[in-house]
Every structure is written in C-alpha cells, then in structure tokens.
Amino acid sequence: MGMAANSLPDIDRIVVITYGTFDLFHEGHFRLLKNARQLGTHLIVAVTSDRFDVGRGKLNVRQTLVERIDGVRRSGLADQIIVEEYEGQKMHDIKKYHADIFTVGSDWKGTFDYLSAHCRVVYLERTAGVSSTQLRGEIRLGIIGCGRIGRRFVREAKFVSGVRVSAVWSRTKASAESLGNEIGAESNLEHVEDLLTIVDAVYIASPHLTHVKYARMAIEAGKHVLCEKPLCLTLQDAEDLHALAAAKGVVFLEAIKTAFMPGFRQMVAVAQGGEIGSICSVTATCTMLRPRESREYDAEQAGGSITELASYPLLAIIRLLGLGRDDVSSLRSQSIMDATSCVDIFTRMELQSTNAMATATVGLGAKAEGDLVVTGTRGYVYVPAPWWLLSSFHLRFEDTKQNRIVNTPMEGDGLRYELAQFVKMICGGRMESPDLPTEESCVLAACMERARAVSQALNREPKSSNNS
Questions:
Q1: Average pLDDT of span 179-183
Q2: Does position 173 have pLDDT exceeding 70, yes or no?
C-alpha cells in the first residue's frame, strides 16, 4: 500500500510518521494530521489493522480498515499510508522509512519515549474546543474525580473508539489541572456545572458519598452518566436516580468493570448452562490491602471493606443465583472493625435463595485468596485470583479427565469494557444494559445497604506500641 523505502534518505526531506485507528475520521483527526504534516516534508500515516486493534484490546471500532484508510486518504494530508499489523512494528517502520520524527497525540505522552533512540518523538496537543458535530459521533466525556481510579480510567479510555476525554473536574483543583495537562483536556473549571456545559456524558469517580449528588446534577442537565461503584449506598437512591434517568432519556450505568468483561459473561453462561449441574453454592472473595491514611479508612467518607469491595462478590452471587429483592432479607454479615478508624477491615456476608447459598468475603485490612468457586451437583467452576479480573476459569469434575481450563479475553485494567458498553448504549439509544440491568443494580444497592445495617461488629483493639 505504501511506496518502497528509498535505499538512501533524501537529506532535504524530513519524514514524519504517525499512527492511529482513525475510526469515523473527524475534525480532530484532521487537525492532528495537519499539525503532524507541519513537522516535516513527508507524512506517513499508519492505520491499525482490524486484527491488531482486537489484539491490543481496542474496543468499539465501527469502521473497517478499508473505510478508515479511505478517511485518511480523503483528508489529503498523507503522502503515504501504511497498515500497522503487529506489536513492535513502529520501531521497524522508523528504520524502514528513515523516519526523522515520530508523533502521536499528547494523550499518549511518555508511552513512546523509548523510540527517541531512533528518531525525534513529538506528542501533539489534542484539539480543544471541537464541537460534537465536528467529531462525527465521538462522545465528549467529562471526568468527575481525578484520583487513582479516574487516572486509570483515562488511560483505558484511549482503547475505546467513539469517545474522547475532553474535560476533567475535581474538588482539588490542582489534581484536575495535573490530569488535564497530561491528556490535553479542559481543566480550568471552578464548578461541576461548568464541566456539564461542555460535555455529552460524564464518568463519576469521586468519593462514594458524592455519587448521588453528582449523578443527579448530570442527569438533570441531560448528560449520560457512568458512575463508579458503588452507585449509591441505599436502594431508594438507586431507584430515584434510575427513574430520573429514564424520565430524562439518558443512559445511567453503574461502573462495575467485571460485569462487562467477556470472561465473566462466559463463565456465568457456562456455570448456568448445566454442565456442572444445578448450582448449590457460590463463594467469592475480594481483598485489597490499603494504607490506613487512605480514603478507604475514613468513616466520614463511607470507608470500609463493604463499600469499597462488596460490589464485586455481590455481583457474582446475584448474577449466578439470579437473586432478586426478595432474597436481600436473607443477608447476614459479620465484620472485624478497626478500633481507630471505626471502619470494617474484613467482612463476611452470607445470603441464600430457595435452593442455594452464598458467601461473600471482602477485606481492606486482611488478606485472603481472592478466588471464586461455583459449586454444582455434578462439578464446580473455579476462578483463580484475582477473579474479578477474569482471564480464565477452570471446570472440575469427579472424573478428573473431564477437567479443563477456559481462557478468555482480558485487556488492561478492564475499565475499557464498561466504557465500551456505555458508548454503545449512547450511540444505539439503549437505556438498559444487557450486562448490568437496572434491576440488578438496584438489588446490589439493597444488598450494600443491608450489609452495612445488619453487620455484627467484632471490635479490634489497636496494637500495643510496646512488647509488654
């Protein structure tokens, strides 16, 4: 597709090479290529192949390779178009085409610094202020909350086509400015309301107790909302927000990444498909040690193991056993409390339905094997730790010759899967997620509320500072 490389480079020619998916070629792509072209005299544009996009976990690409190449060609900016087909090709292309400058958008800043040993590396600032009409189908996404999860989400968003993080806001302005500068997003915003005027949708990654407030503000402003788990801490709040979203005609989705992972869907389908017989029990554990000075240990911010981690095991239990609101009253829990912070650092919850039982274990101050076991009458499913980032699961039987391992796709932190579903729902005009229905999200909120209300506390005294 490209011309053969010259055996000797032309000293008067400055070769610039850039890479991208270029799905639904829009004004932002045009301006990026225009700026890239201005860096030299010959611009080579590498368009990712369909197979390469799938292999690197790029989701929601809506055009074929031929269509995407045609979009680049019609821009009139590329002197040469090639196809990126494998990991490591960039270094090979730089040498093959005698590239002087490698350039991509600033949202990849630092990622390709290793190429500076072979040519100059330039990160171009993304175009600010481009309207949604100019971005043909690309959703302008605002981030509310710029902590750990917000930053991880921004990294993952680069792998989802049809969406761009265009603005960020945090209660701590310095945090928003830092992240905004890193990715070329608008961050000079005093209030959440300012962000809501310049985006089409928001991802809420703020502390738990602010979720309801910010979600309601965004929905009332007519914005689609992807809200980090837990969506809220009471069933009433969950019902109210979902009802408001339905009335406003916007997507409202709880961001529990595991629910949207291909491997989790496949594991549930196999477990419920009858191969292991009737499901009798589900046990799921999720523990992540956190320092005492972290937000998770702050009782005033609804810290604790239940609020921070219970969404994962409860999701698996509700999905696998098909639990509904009537089953929530069966929930019992016990917690080991931290005497200093007064939050639960280790909690075990038990639920039951007519024909099955379940145990969910979570911990911030105690470590356990984070696996999942689905017990059936003919065999069982075992998912190794960390099961909530499911990349494989085991089927095990009395006759060990029948045992097998099923490997499933899993890319990055998994956050791209929830965003991909969110974008699909918006673009398709769908208000209900097939992977996390409204009712299931409400049952999760009800379980969270009950677990916190009925838990029997086991007080834990602070360790003595001496050996006496």
A1: 89
A2: yes
